[in-house]
């Protein structure tokens, strides 16, 4: 069932640092003019640029969502992947079918994947849109024990202005997963989640702007409905995978563009619809956590 695509969200986002931002590179650049702690770099069309790896974003979103799920549902909400007895990716004597693996996984693994399960959410690397201003900051690490300088001084390359564009994809999703994504975006905007290095120095606060919202569904849908996968597949398949059954929200905002074909429906919404979509999807999340 999950080899086919039943629903999909493509969310275009813009990330703007509100405090110094440093996503640390693990390698050392051959360029001696760069600071000790450098921003991670890659090449885009032959030009070297700093960027935010999609994997870093995914890690930040996952840990925030896990915290919420674990608080409400314990290890059924988010298992402990480091504890062999408490992870839903533990080895079993014989390989279970895909639907059993999904059904038996904790909510966090259902959304972000595990060694046994494909992630429903993916993050594209975030590249600068226009110019990013970087500065060098100096830091030392203070020993908690002696209150003396334990390490440093070292210099850090931080991004201080400009913005990065990225895309988030949710595929074959249940609406509570859309709710969890919306909640994490709120967490970033509210400063509850920071990204990168130096969170205790006040680094890593970013604003997230929603730029584009595009849903695709594998069937024709009534005009105002946005559906989770459990509503789109057969009732039998929904039961086999343990999906939320009648997974629907009704959206009052009108799409800015609609394509209705026999085999799919595509809808784009303007960024101002995100608030309504978020609120309704977060209600679905609350529903499964209550
Ligand atoms: Zn798990």
Overview in brief:
The protein has 290 residues and is of the alpha+beta class. The protein is built from seven helices and eleven strands.
What does this structure look like?
This protein is α+β, with helices and mostly antiparallel strands and about 290 residues long. The protein has one domain (about 5-290). Helices cover about 25% and strands about 30% of the residues. It is built from 7 helices and 11 strands. It has helices at about 55-75, 100-105, 105-110, 175-190, 230, 235-240, 275-290; strands spanning about 5-15, 40-45, 45-50, 120-125, 125-140, 150-170, 205-215, 225, 250, 255-260, 265-270. The strands form 3 sheets. Strands 1, 4, 5, 6, 7, 10 and 11 form a 7-stranded antiparallel beta sheet that branches. Strands 2-3 form a two-stranded antiparallel ribbon. α4 crosses α7. It binds zinc ion. The site of zinc ion (ZN) has 8 residues, from α3.
Q: What structural class results from the helix and strand content?
A: alpha+beta
Radius of gyration: 21 Å
Mean pLDDT: 92
Report on the biggest sheet: 7 strands, antiparallel
Low-confidence stretches: none
Helicity range of the residues? 25-40%
Q: Please give the alpha-carbon distance between the first and last residues.
A: 28 Å
SS field, number of helical segments:
7
């Amino acid at each position: 069932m999950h080899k086919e695509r039943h629903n999909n969200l493509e969310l275009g986002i813009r990330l703007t640092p509100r405090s110094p931002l440093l996503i640390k590179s693990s390698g050392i650049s051959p360029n001696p003019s760069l600071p000790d702690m450098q921003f991670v770099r890659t090449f885009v069309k032959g030009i070297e640029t700093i960027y935010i790896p999609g994997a870093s974003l995914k890690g930040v979103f996952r840990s925030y969502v896990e915290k919420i799920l674990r608080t409400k549902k314990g290890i059924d909400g988010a298992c402990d992947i480091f504890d062999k007895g408490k992870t839903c990716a533990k080895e079993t004597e014989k390989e279970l079918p895909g639907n059993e693996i999904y059904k038996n996984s904790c909510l966090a693994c259902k959304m972000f994947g595990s060694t046994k399960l494909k992630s429903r959410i993916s993050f594209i690397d975030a590249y600068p849109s226009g110019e990013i201003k970087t500065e060098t900051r100096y830091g030392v690490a203070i020993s908690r024990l002696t209150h003396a300088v334990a390490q440093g001084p070292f210099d850090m390359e931080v991004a201080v202005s400009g913005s990065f564009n990225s895309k988030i994809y949710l595929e074959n999703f249940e609406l509570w997963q859309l709710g969890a994504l919306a909640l994490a975006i709120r967490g970033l905007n509210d400063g509850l989640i920071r990204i990168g290095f130096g969170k205790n120095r006040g680094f890593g606060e970013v604003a997230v702007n929603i730029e584009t919202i595009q849903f695709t569904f594998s069937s024709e849908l009534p005009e105002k409905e946005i559906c989770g996968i459990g509503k789109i597949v057969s009732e039998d398949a929904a039961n086999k995978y343990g999906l939320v059954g009648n997974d629907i929200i009704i959206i009052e905002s009108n799409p800015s563009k609609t394509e209705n074909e026999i085999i799919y429906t595509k809808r784009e919404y303007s960024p101002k619809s995100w608030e309504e979509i978020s609120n309704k999807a977060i209600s679905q999340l609350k529903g499964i956590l209550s």
